[in-house]
Specification:
By secondary structure, the chain is α/β, with parallel strands linked by helices. The chain has 17 helices and 26 strands. It is globular and about 75 Å long.
């Protein structure tokens, strides 16, 4: 948040600072920190030249004052397609708090949110956070957002979801197709995924829908953002189609405040710019050109967009005043209705080696549970370097995915002990794959609140997993379906004949302390309802906090102010489809086209 004295600073004062030069405004930094920033900047500059992204710059190179038609905050899964689309007709600035994905060894076909959770370096493409429920989670911090880190599965929202959202179905389909032409591929399905598919069908998740990106009941193979060579494609790829003369992107730019003023003849505050800081602590101001037809658009995600609204004075008045933030508009529902689809997974040890695969097959049940799987070396992440030799991949206890303990017992010490024991186990213990279930919705919701006024810090998040009993019952039926899949004839090649055979191969009892195995141990007599609550983890599909209706209108304008929209997953009441990234990308393109049309339409917009 900007210092109180800077909020009312005149443009003349800022321009004077520009003349003096940013050198005098930079806070003192250590020689080591400065060298580290310089080296990182040089590496990103080389990659920028290589990929011909000449409009992408480091935030430290930004002018202290600049002007654009549109300012998009957040270069993630929605922000990249949105900015690329708007640049077709207008001057656009895209501000991203993270770094460059291309050439980054931390953004590859082998990298996942779980690796990011274990990576505490300043250049990690994700930022770890722990919800107030005790579940460890991650927030993307890289150009391209979560598409740089997820399991790559691509599937559209259902037609019912589109109708409920009030979207134009024809434009939605055109926007999906635009996304798919750029970065969606049909996967090669390895044997383990094929066995999962057949097992789902034998377990009653029918019909067989073959390959499709549509959301339909039954079992299907979905699209992927990994190409045939295994290379990950991300939302940042959309920027290759942007107009390079009209788009500017600043990386490592942390926005601290949306600026508002009162427009003559209007009772509503008007957004007219933003303040962001570079890694050296220098403040930069960006103003809208021709405020009546220009906009600030937040695409900072489920945590970032509500947080930035509140830091800027748009939110629950009492909560803002508690943190010393002056309320511009009292909007009590900002930050409310946040949800994270709970995931419960089981590890199925295999007597034979299993090829690496991320999510390719999904079972869409009729009772509100989605079944997916990942397989391969060390829980889905191949090992090629000593640094990652014991990461244990997607469901590692070291990343907080310690599902055998209830969330509040997943302490740092518990994770350390688990990792230490697992390092001593026979490698055969880690052959196999995870079958997981995610519930529809969910119906249980929580909230995002400010923890401080530091824009670099994560806000406080509460998801209230399984508070609604209907979510619990969906989980129970999902686990029962997984049990039928594991017992199916189709999946028998990848399961041990019995517990005795498993015990001969490796120390099953030791592994079961840290992973939920199927079949469950005979002494595990917990009802499945309690099992769901105790073993809950995240699937990184959190959403909400800026819902359509109480926070934004159907055109995603923030209610009570002018010149400000939110276009990202924070506007979703429920997670779309089985995996949301397709719809988040689509929404960026869809709203870019809608805003373009409005911008060229005569007459006032607010």
């Amino acid at each position: 948040m900007a210092a109180p004295g800077l909020r009312g600073s005149s443009v003349a004062l800022v321009l004077a600072a520009t003349v003096l030069g940013s050198f005098y405004l930079r806070p003192a930094v250590s020689q080591q920190q400065g060298q580290g920033e310089e080296a990182a900047g040089e590496e990103e500059e080389a990659q920028r030249q290589r990929y011909n992204f000449r409009f992408v710059r480091h935030a430290r190179d930004a002018p202290l004052v600049s002007h654009y038609n549109y300012i998009v905050v957040g270069g993630g899964t929605a922000g990249c397609p949105l900015a690329a689309t708007l640049s077709e007709r207008s001057r656009v600035l895209l501000l991203e708090r993270g770094g460059y994905p291309y050439g980054n060894r931390n953004v590859s076909s082998e990298y996942h949110f779980a690796d990011a959770l274990a990576d505490t370096s300043p250049r990690s493409p994700a930022q770890r956070f722990v919800s107030e429920d005790g579940v460890v989670n991650a927030r993307a911090r890289v150009l391209g957002g979560g598409s740089c880190l997820n399991a790559g599965f691509y599937t559209r929202a259902s037609s019912e979801y589109v109708r409920a959202a009030g979207w134009d179905a024809r434009l939605v389909n055109a926007s999906y197709r635009w996304v798919e032409r750029e970065l969606v591929f049909r996967p090669d399905v390895p044997r383990w995924q094929g066995a999962l598919r057949e097992g789902l069908l034998q377990a009653g998740v029918t019909p067989d829908n073959g390959y499709t990106v549509d959301h339909v009941p039954g079992t299907k193979i979905g699209g992927t953002i990994f190409d045939s060579a295994g290379r990950r494609h991300t939302a940042a790829d959309f920027l290759r189609g942007a107009n390079p003369r009209r788009l500017t992107v600043f990386l490592h730019a942390t926005v601290s405040q949306v600026l508002f003023r009162r427009r003559e003849g209007s009772a509503s505050p008007v957004a007219y710019g933003v303040v962001f800081t570079d890694p050296m602590g220098v403040q930069h101001r960006v103003y809208l050109r021709g405020v009546g037809r220009s906009e600030v658009i937040l695409a900072a995600g489920t945590l970032g967009s509500p947080q930035l609204l509140m830091l800027s004075g748009v939110g629950p008045r009492a909560h803002l005043e508690k943190h010393g933030v002056r309320a511009v508009v009292d909007r009590p529902m900002v930050g409310q209705g946040v949800a994270d689809n709970p995931m419960n997974s089981v590890f199925v040890p295999s007597p034979v080696p299993v090829a690496l695969s991320l999510v390719q097959v999904v079972g869409v049940t009729r009772f509100g549970s989605f079944i997916e799987g990942v397989s391969g070396s060390q829980f889905g992440i191949p090992l090629h370097s000593r640094r990652r030799a014991h990461s244990f991949g997607m469901f590692s206890p070291m990343t907080g995915q310690l599902g055998t303990l209830p969330p509040r017992e997943r302490t740092a010490e518990a994770m350390r002990r688990a990792a230490e024991v697992m390092r001593g186990l026979d490698r055969r213990a880690f052959r196999g794959g995870f079958i997981l279930e995610k519930i529809l919705g969910p119906l249980s919701t929580g909230h995002v609140e400010l923890r401080s006024t530091d824009p670099h810090a994560n806000p406080a998040v509460t998801f209230n997993y399984f508070r609604d009993p209907r979510d619990v019952e969906r989980c129970v039926r999902g686990i029962q379906t997984i049990e039928r899949v594991v017992r199916s004839r189709a999946f028998s090649r990848f399961t041990y004949a019995n517990a005795t055979a498993m015990d001969v191969a490796f120390d099953r009892a030791a592994l079961a302390k840290f992973l939920n195995l199927l079949p469950r141990h005979p002494r595990d007599t917990r009802p499945l309802q309690q099992y769901c609550r105790d073993t809950v983890m995240t699937i990184w599909h959190y959403h909400g906090g800026c819902h359509v209706g109480p926070v934004v209108d159907p055109d995603y304008r923030v209610i009570g102010v002018a010149g400000l929209r939110v276009v990202d997953s924070s506007t979703f009441k429920y997670s779309p489809g089985t995996n949301p990234q397709a719809t988040v990308m689509m929404l960026g393109r869809y709203m870019g086209l809608k805003i373009q049309e409005e911008g060229w339409r005569p007459g006032p917009r607010n």
